[in-house]
Write a structure and sequence with these properties.
TIM Barrel; binds 1,3-dihydroxyacetonephosphate; single chain; alpha/beta
Length: 251
């Protein structure tokens, strides 16, 4: 963990959760307020339908809420889409953009993701921009090239003047129980840091780089202590308050 960056642990609930899931949020709030204050900023990204309720419920215990995607436009004829300003209006402070599941399932391009991040910043949200290679790309030795190109394409100019978070999520580690070795995580995070410094100068040193992909209670302490890992983006293990709390406490 880089000392100057406040760590952040975000839970991405993906398409899981109804109002009943807010009980899990209450349980997490109880754990967070009964023990020592968490060192990390704690973010939950629930489905859009419960963003407002989660934001209300999380506020007293310091849990902040994020969306899982936003549209590039402020408003308009985009049936089913959600504007960044709507998430902000519902109480969100963060928004995930460019998750690999949206890149693959919805054909999102780096350019669209960059526009989404710009829209998020414009609405006062803090984007969490996801990048990461496939297993085939890693095996072909292309992981760094892929990540470099995603960084160049999806991170907006002037990112250094706002709170922008990068989440490195190797696609083959998402939901599989597999993770890169600690050395590989360290190497990729150092590579991302260097790219951010090359582009944004000294301010690139304070952009948060999260790790995501099978981050679990069992491996959180090890992974979150790697240099340039400034927190985590957690999928499955964020759905259960006790697991998520263990990860938060590992910071
Ligand atoms: P898992 O933690 O379930 O592997 O998911 C990671 C992820 O995609 C978070 O955005």
């Amino acid at each position: 963990m880089t000392a100057t960056i406040s760590p952040l642990i975000a839970g991405n609930w993906k398409m899981n959760g109804t109002r009943a899931s807010l009980d899990e949020l209450s349980a997490l709030a109880g754990m967070l307020t009964s023990g020592a204050a968490p060192r990390a900023i704690v973010v939950i990204c629930p489905p859009a339908t419960i963003v407002a309720a989660a934001a209300r419920q999380g506020a007293p215990s310091g849990i902040v809420v994020g969306g899982q995607d936003c549209h590039v436009e402020v408003s308009g004829a985009y049936t089913g889409d959600i504007a960044a300003g709507m998430l902000a209006d519902a109480g969100a402070q963060y928004v995930i953009v460019g998750h690999s599941e949206r890149r693959s399932g919805h054909g999102e391009t780096d350019e669209q993701i960059r526009m989404k991040a710009i829209a998020a910043i414009g609405a006062g949200l803090k984007p969490i921009i996801c990048i990461g290679e496939t297993e085939a790309q890693r095996e072909a030795g292309d992981a760094e090239a892929v990540v470099a190109s995603q960084l160049a394409g999806s991170v907006p100019d002037a990112a250094e003047n706002h709170e922008v978070n990068i989440a490195y999520e190797p696609i083959w580690a998402i939901g599989t129980g597999r993770t890169p070795s600690n050395e590989d995580i360290a190497a990729m995070h150092a590579f991302i840091r260097q790219k951010l410094v090359d582009r944004f100068g000294e301010k690139g040193l304070s952009i948060r780089i999260l790790y995501g992909g099978s981050l679990k209670p069992q491996n959180a302490r090890e992974i979150l202590s790697i240099e340039n890992v400034n927190g985590g983006l957690v999928g499955g293990a964020s759905l259960l308050a006790s697991d998520f709390y263990t990860i938060i406490s590992a910071v």
